[in-house]
Amino acid sequence: MRAVDPQVARQIDLVQPYLQLGQIDLVYQILFDALDHDPRSWLTKWDLTGAWSPEGVTFRRDARFGELVQRLGLIDYWKQYGFPDGCRAGDDTPIVCS
What we know:
This protein is mainly alpha-helical. The protein is about 50% helix and about 5% strand. It has one domain (about 10-95). The chain has 6 helices and 2 strands, in the order ααααααββ. It has a two-stranded antiparallel sheet.
C-alpha cells in the first residue's frame, strides 16, 4: 500500500487499513507528517474513527497518542467536556488510554 499512487489514494486515506494490519509506527508517521505539512489537515482530510475501533486499541495505548491528540487540541477539549471512554488525563503524559 505504501507504493499506491497518491492520485489513486493518499497515505492519509489508508490509515484505517494500516491500523487493521497493526502498522502502528507507520500510522503515526503518516499522521505526524500530515500535521507537519498542514497543522489543520486533520479537520477536513482525516477520518479518526479508526482510533476508536477494536483495531485502534494499540494505537490509543501508544505513548505517541498523547502527543498526537495534544497537537490536535483535543486534550483541552476533553479536560473541559470529559475524556473518551477508557481514557483519562495522565500524570506524566497528556492522556492514558486502556
